[in-house]
């Protein structure tokens, strides 16, 4: 797989990811009050986070800035990995996986770097782009999430230590297109590990 095709994958994912995020940000009120119930197990709503998995964040005044800078540095590493894989004519599995991870990381970095100075907040009203009163500053934007799949709800059995008797939902995370790209890329590396990292001479006509 050529580097050009990998870049095309990245461009398509970034366009879709940003289109969806901007639409959700400017057409949904923050939280469950503004959600759309597509089905009982699929909901669309606007949630924002600091950019780490499960809404986690680095504590302290400069925690968000540290996270954003780290992610920018990391994406340069992923970009080099993609370029290096292309020069070595690595397998399509590896090239696609890296492209997906790169696109997902880049999509969320765009939110972190730019959204704080582009949008105002979405609490109780619709957000506007290029607002005179943006909610944040450069490198302090929040990542927009919108996809929610509460497929199953239940209660942990009473005999279970710590969590016994407590309610739970599966799947409780709210995520976006960029997160899906990253997860899919990582999944390819795990499930198709041998094919992704196969030596060039063993790939034959399948490389």
Describe the overall structure.
There is one protein chain. This protein has 207 residues and is an alpha+beta fold. The protein has a domain at 3-28 and 59-144 and 177-206. The protein is 48% helix and 16% strand. It has helices at 3-27, 63-87, 92-118, 177-191, 193-196, 200-203, and strands at residues 31-39, 42-49, 143-148, 152-155, 167-170, 174-175. The longest helix is centred in the middle third of the chain and has 27 residues, at 92-118.
Q: How would you concisely characterize the structure shown here?
A:
With 207 residues, this protein is of the alpha+beta class. Helix content is 48%, strand content 16%. Strand 1 and strand 2 form a beta hairpin.
In terms of DSSP E residues, the strand content is 15-25%
Largest sheet: 4 strands, antiparallel
Question: End-to-end distance, in Å?
Answer: 7 Å
- Compute the average pLDDT: 90
Number of helices: 6
Tally the beta strands: 6
Low-confidence blocks of residues: none
Estimated radius of gyration: 20 Å
Class from secondary-structure proportions: alpha+beta
- What pattern of helices and strands is seen along the backbone? HEEHHEEEEHHH
The neighbouring-strand order within the major sheet is 1-2-3-6
Estimate the global geometry from the Cα principal axes.
globular
Share of helix, binned: 40-55%
